[in-house]
Amino acid sequence: MALPTDEIRAFTGKVLRGGDIPEVYRTDRSGYVAAGEPEVLVLAADVDDVRRAVVAAAGAGLSVVVRGGGSGLAGGAAAGAGSLILDVSGLNRILEIAADDEVAVVEAGVSAAVLDAAAHRHGLRYTPDPASTAISTIGGNIATNAGGLRCVKYGVTGDATLGLDVVLADGQLLHTGRRTAKGVAGLDLTSLFTGSEGILGVIVAATVRLRPVPIDTITIAAYFDDVESAAAACAAVLAARVRPAMLELLDESSLREAQDLLGVRGESAGAFVVAQTDGFGARAEADIVAKTFGEFTSRVRTGSDPDAAAELLAVRRAALPALERHGRVLIEDIVVPRSRIATAVRRITETAARHRSRINTFGHAGDGNLHPIIVVPADDPDAYTRAVAAADEIFATALELGGTITGEHGVGVLKRAWLAREQGPTALRTQQSIRHALDPNGLFNPGKAL
Amino acid sequence: MALPTDEIRAFTGKVLRGGDIPEVYRTDRSGYVAAGEPEVLVLAADVDDVRRAVVAAAGAGLSVVVRGGGSGLAGGAAAGAGSLILDVSGLNRILEIAADDEVAVVEAGVSAAVLDAAAHRHGLRYTPDPASTAISTIGGNIATNAGGLRCVKYGVTGDATLGLDVVLADGQLLHTGRRTAKGVAGLDLTSLFTGSEGILGVIVAATVRLRPVPIDTITIAAYFDDVESAAAACAAVLAARVRPAMLELLDESSLREAQDLLGVRGESAGAFVVAQTDGFGARAEADIVAKTFGEFTSRVRTGSDPDAAAELLAVRRAALPALERHGRVLIEDIVVPRSRIATAVRRITETAARHRSRINTFGHAGDGNLHPIIVVPADDPDAYTRAVAAADEIFATALELGGTITGEHGVGVLKRAWLAREQGPTALRTQQSIRHALDPNGLFNPGKAL
Fold first, then answer.
1. Integer CA distances (angstroms), B213 to A61, A284, B156, B193, B398, in order
2. When you count CB atoms within 10 A of the terminal residue's CB, does the N or C end of chain A come out lower?
3. pLDDT 10s digit of each residue in chain B, 450 long?
4. Residue A208 contacts residue A141 (beta carbons within 8 Å)
């Protein structure tokens, strides 16, 4: 099937066909590659382009795969045979910053980093902070309900999302939500589209909440003998009523690899934790964090120097790229109740041994959100099969400990088989009925998310 | 239509029929009374009762109206002709408090006050704090996504709701969400049911987030010459990066009436604001709040004495009951962007004059959520008609200022006509299609919410 040429000419944005479409659109950062070649790529320049592309795709029997920064980690935006790719990264205007109301209105292609920088000029910030903040789009962040480093205090992307503009399967433009701090009129469509992974409609704009830049920020780093004591220290911090803005954990080799990539001569340790406190209580909270860490290790470093803090955070952010040097990586994303973090890490270590896989774990200890990274060396032909078996065991561990298979990356294509195991047939059937109600002909992202 | 006697016998809970059903089930705290008499009242004792009642009602052609504390403010739980009332207030067990994970699992009939008290024994609290906390149920709070006094810092009921158990139209039990701090597997059904006002299913249990009891709480009260300066002072506090846990405003006569009801000889003023700061930064934030208020009035009182704070909050909480002494009240619930609070209050004053209605306004200044209370004296036969016209004008004001017709009370039956004006036909159609997908035969709360 293909789009008639007249329909293509109608777009103000650029349109590419078949073999002219860059290969990158068949994949995302997960490494998953969709089967077959997509038919059409529409580089939309405005909402009208999006509406016309949706109607045209429906008429031509093509499916619609929405694309932002292409930084997804579950294959959700990978486009294959029979698809029209709707690249909305060109919708990249900040439409409004209402500083008094702490609200911004942005198009879907704006990156969180760009919005955050713009908000800073008003003494505000956009708190959602996915690791991909510089390369992902806010539309993609919303479509996956992305997390990041600040969730333990400030919540996830959905917590900052007040309203959306969405192009529906019939090409109509839907406005959801509001720009006020509260509001309960009607069903919460904003939350329904947030995290829906492109299966219900095309997010073209969002009204989001901004927050004041904190008056003070303090960074505390600590080096522990092992992950158990690091996890116990994190739990003790939270039990001390402290609400850090960040509480990140790296295991031994994640730390070493990150230091190596950055070329820093850091301390070695069985586990590394970096925390930040912010706001009016930052110093009081930092003192308690440092004192609490001090009950589990003698190596605690505290400072409010932004450069020193940036260096410590750089180590955390370098963990994934450092591991990617060693081959393809399977980036997992489980969440367990916070009290089970140490158990989860121990189980992951056992899984790694059982499947002769290299698995390094880091993540958001404050949320119980762990990223076990399974490294698949290129020179080991059997490694991928073992890695997949290890990943399955990690998902099973998450469910067994009362957790979930994905905390912030989404289901995409890679975790579909596990969704039913987590949620059961009634939840799956309910979701399918909603999907069918909004997209009766299965136009949007077929084969993904559910 | 009526339920066959055999079906009724199957319930372990108590069942009443026709004329035996107390009149109170036809109304709620809004004063709205449903037309006709409900057919059956099921006082459910457990989830099985709920499932059987739903299946039996569907079989008998009755609609299902779910009832908790009956404290709704929009008529959403008022049951009329052709209905089976499913009273779930008997499902009132706290099933679990997992202090380490800051999570509780409760049945729908538990009140927020009871849960909060139980959480306190673990050094935790349940932050959603609707004014009805002692008489409403958490199931009703979730069904309306109730707000309250602490939303400006801690969010609304939905922000504390991690997962739900819901009985669907076919009697199946749906589990939504999770018990972890984060999770993005599948569509966000938890948020969809939160605020759905009984039209999608019966909420029977919830997994909710708890938070540490703050280490410190300070109360600041200020008396202003007029509402304009009070609203400006509130805006200035928020612009100073302070995040109070509470920021409540009362107009002149709300304050006087509340003081009168309580028998306290308080100060008189054109407007009254009570704020609280809490946490590790409470003192630093309170200093800024007091200093900022001081730029708008000389009458600022600060204290950390719990008794003095309780007295100030009692004034805020007494505002509504004080006005209810003067007749039936229409309790409105608009939200405007925070920068428009003073404009909204001025417009409401003009509306009161135009319709010769008594309207007192108080509300959550930190959220822009105002409760204009229209008093309908019993001895004024024409007052109700004028009050309804005034309410319509207030809704129009809210929309004109970029706000919403309901911040925390819901649409129920009383605001249905205004929902379409706020959201437009596409949003309404989308919501109706979701309702139809989950409840194809219109079993749940027909004529409500949409």
1. 56, 16, 17, 28, 35
2. N
3. 455 556 655 666 789 998 899 999 999 999 899 999 999 999 999 999 999 999 999 999 999 999 999 999 999 999 999 999 999 999 999 999 999 999 999 999 999 999 999 999 999 999 999 988 889 999 999 999 999 999 999 999 999 999 999 999 999 999 999 999 999 999 999 999 999 999 999 999 999 999 999 999 999 999 999 999 999 999 999 989 899 999 999 999 999 999 999 998 888 999 999 999 999 999 999 999 999 999 999 999 998 888 888 888 899 999 999 999 999 999 999 999 999 999 999 999 999 999 999 999 999 999 999 999 999 998 999 999 999 999 999 999 999 999 999 999 999 999 999 999 999 999 999 999 999 999 999 999 999 999
4. no
- B434 vs A438: CB contact, 8 Å cut-off? yes
Inspect the interface and report whether the beta carbons of B427 and A189 lie closer than 8 Å: yes
The whole-angstrom separation of Cα A380 and Cα A152 is 38
Provide the b/e sequence for A413-425 (b: ≥16 CB within 10 Å). Answer: bbbeebbeebbee
Backbone angles phi, psi at B419, to 5 degrees: -60, -45
* CATH 3.30.70.2190 intervals, chain B: 214-324
| Mode of pairing for the β-strands spanning A246-251 and B271-278 | unpaired
The angle subtended at Cα A135 by Cα A315 and Cα A243, nearest 5°, is 50
- Of how many residues is chain A composed? 450
Q: Start-end ranges of CATH 3.30.70.2740 in chain B?
A: 326-440
Looking at beta carbons, which residues of chain A come within 8 Å of B195? 184, 187-188
What is the spatial distance between Cα B244 and Cα B267, in angstroms, rounded to a whole number? 23
- From chain A residues 218-257, the ones with a CB under 8 A of any chain B CB are 235, 238-239, 241-243
Q: Given this structure, which CATH class describes domain A5-87? A: alpha beta
A116 Cβ neighbours under 8 A, 6+ residues apart:
A125, A126, A129, A133
Residue B358 near residue B374, CB atoms below 8 Å:
yes
How is domain B214-324 classified at the CATH fold level? Alpha-Beta Plaits (3.30.70)
Pick the CATH number of B326-440 from 3.40.50.720, 3.90.1520.10, 3.30.70.2740, 3.90.226.10: 3.30.70.2740
| CB neighbour list of residue A406: distance below 8 Å, 6 or more residues apart | A74, A333, A334, A335, A415, B183, B184, B185
Would you tell me how many other CB atoms lie within 10 Å of the CB of residue B172? 16
- Any CB–CB contact under 8 A between A33 and chain B? no
Q: Which CATH architecture has domain A94-212?
A: 2-Layer Sandwich (3.30)
Tell me whether B4 touches chain A (CB under 8 Å): no
Asked if this assembly's ipTM is beyond 0.90, the reply is yes
Residue of B nearest to A215 (CA): B241
Q: Give the right CATH number for A214-318 from 3.40.50.300, 3.30.70.2190, 3.40.50.2300, 3.40.190.10.
A: 3.30.70.2190
**CA proximity to B243, closest of A212, A101, A162, A154:** A212
CATH code 3.30.465.10 region(s) in chain B: 94-212
The beta strands (E) that lie in B63-138 are given as 63-67, 83-87, 94-98, 103-107, 124-125
Beta bridge partners of B271: B224, B251
Instruction: Determine the residue of chain A that is closest to B399 in CA distance.
Output: A178
Residue in B with minimal Cα distance to A281? B281
* CATH code 3.30.43.10 region(s) in chain A: 5-87
